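Comment thread on ticket #2218

A.B. wrote:
> Attaching the input chain for the structure job we discussed in standup.
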Amino acid sequence: MEMNQTQRLPVPKQVAWEALNDTALLKQCIPGCESIEPDGDNAYLLALTAAIGPVKARFKGRMALQDIQAPDSYTIQFDGQGGAAGFGKGSAHVRLDAEGEETLLSYTVNAQVGGKIAQIGSRLVDAAARKMADSFFTRFTEALGGGAQEAAAQEGEGSGQDKNQDGSQDSSQGGGGQSDEPKRKRSWTAWISKS
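C.D. wrote:
> Ran it. Output below, let me know if you need it in another format.
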């Protein structure tokens, strides 16, 4: 399996580099991550739960950072075992490029899977890997840009974000979806006030 992607991070390159090396932040952002513990120089033991198609398993593994060229790039070698579910191993090359006050993070992953996971089929495995990567980068970007988004909301620049944070409305839905939410909210409020 090979996966390439580029993500725009709302922070300068040095801040992005430090965040990518912050195990507490990574633990919060990696979907299903239970622990990240140091295991020597630039190496870590990981435990996470992942679902790939109908197979859900707890994986334990090790990742090592190699070819470190701070704050530009590194390569992650990883190997994980999921018991009867199978295994995954491979590498990911991560590169950061400054673009003004933001950073472009590019990565290329080459991975192999075996066991029940491999029997599921490459389309489901690829889809699960992309979903996990998208979820990670959504959480990671939110963690990095949380303060900036709050400041923009206070200044009134992010009106679409204000709705998501304060009113729990998704501004990307069609008009019907937005009109349903306020009705439910009002009826819930009315029900509580009658009690």
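A.B. wrote:
> Thanks. Noting for the ticket: Residues 2-157 form a domain with the Alpha-D-Glucose-1,6-Bisphosphate; Chain A, domain 4 fold (CATH 3.30.530.20).
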